[in-house]
Inverse folding.
């Protein structure tokens, strides 16, 4: 049985189940994560003692990356079963969009300069200012014509963004790009590619709100595998993945894509890892979709499952962590408590204040959304 390293193991759960799934493929799985993850208890499962915390992996053992840090490691050390196009697409949205274009897939329109972007704004379109090579929502701004005077400022910021997270993940900012903001419903999905076989891990419908010009994920709702949408979008995911990876590759694949009212299905982001921030939602189902995808097995859900995010609309220190619960049965998990600092543009997983997990998404949730956007009643703003 050949050894295989799953790097970034703090990002997943039920390590025993995942290890068993890989054993059925003929691999002895080793769990690894970076030293800076040691002591960080992301989930309440007792298997973290199986994880080795190190940034120096043995040579000759292939790596499956689960996080941005380990994608950087695989690029640097050439230690994965991941194709060059997949790795390049993980680090450059410009490369990803060009790749999709040359393979006859839909992709966001790219504006070559500020003048072209302003013209698009004046025609009633919204545009996205985004760093070329960064992950999650770092540096992304969405503007309409009323905000066009901020365009060059945001472009400069996106071109020059640097922070501690990027240094830790060993990600280099490659400049910025201007693209159309594809209108429609956004989705997030994970899949697993094994020697030409693609399996969907999960597909989530996202609810996006714009906070201070930044798109922020307010909720995720799992699509049921038997649903028409799941079946339809699974085919797109498989086609994109088949193009990006080589036949002998082994990797997870994460996508964000937007479905327009006209029926466009447009990939806007990709990485050869799993998506972050949804483990609580997946654990709530009582199944392990990662292990099932590794084995190539399908699953079903007994109900709808949703995860709502409490987000800050101002920057400051939390003074009241008695967050309002939604008017439905569910579980509230606090991620930040009194005394913690929060920011007014909470576009990344780490900037969420709390989660609310529930089944059977409430039809009138729009009336509850205001409860999720926390301002000065809960956060002390330093004047």
């Amino acid at each position: 049985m050949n050894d295989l390293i799953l790097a970034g193991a703090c990002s997943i759960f039920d390590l025993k189940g995942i290890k068993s799934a890989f054993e059925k493929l003929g691999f002895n799985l080793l769990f690894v994560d970076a030293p800076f993850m040691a002591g960080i208890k992301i989930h309440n499962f007792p298997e973290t003692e199986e994880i080795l915390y190190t940034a120096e992996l043995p040579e000759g053992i292939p790596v499956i990356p689960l996080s941005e840090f380990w994608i950087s490691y695989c690029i640097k050390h050439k230690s994965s079963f991941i194709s060059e196009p997949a790795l390049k697409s993980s680090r450059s949205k410009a490369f990803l969009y060009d790749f999709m274009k040359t393979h006859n897939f839909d992709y966001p329109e790219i504006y070559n300069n500020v003048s072209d972007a302003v013209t698009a704004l004046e025609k009633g379109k919204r545009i996205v200012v985004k760093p070329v090579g960064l992950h999650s929502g770092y540096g992304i701004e969405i503007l309409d014509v009323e905000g066009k005077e901020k365009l060059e400022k945001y472009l400069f910021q996106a071109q020059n963004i640097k922070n501690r997270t990027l240094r830790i993940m060993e990600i280099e900012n490659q400049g910025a790009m201007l693209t159309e903001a594809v209108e429609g419903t956004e989705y997030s999905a994970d899949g697993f590619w094994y020697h030409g076989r693609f399996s969907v891990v999960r597909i989530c419908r996202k609810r996006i709100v714009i906070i201070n010009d930044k798109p922020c994920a307010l909720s995720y709702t799992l699509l049921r595998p038997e649903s028409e949408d799941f079946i339809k979008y699974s085919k797109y995911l498989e086609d994109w993945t088949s193009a990006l990876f080589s036949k002998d590759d082994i990797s997870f694949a994460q996508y964000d894509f937007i479905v327009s009212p006209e029926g466009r299905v447009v990939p806007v982001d990709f990485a050869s890892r799993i998506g972050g921030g949804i483990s609580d939602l997946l654990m709530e189902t009582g199944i392990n979709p990662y292990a099932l995808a590794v084995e190539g097995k399908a699953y079903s859900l007994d109900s709808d499952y949703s995860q709502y995010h409490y987000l800050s609309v101002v920057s400051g220190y939390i003074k009241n962590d008695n967050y309002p619960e939604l008017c439905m049965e569910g579980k509230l998990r606090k991620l930040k408590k009194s005394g913690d600092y929060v920011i007014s543009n909470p576009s990344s997983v780490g900037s969420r204040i709390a989660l609310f997990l529930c089944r059977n998404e409430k039809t009138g949730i729009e009336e509850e959304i205001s409860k999720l956007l926390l301002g000065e009643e809960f956060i002390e703003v330093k004047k």
About this structure: The radius of gyration is 20 Å.
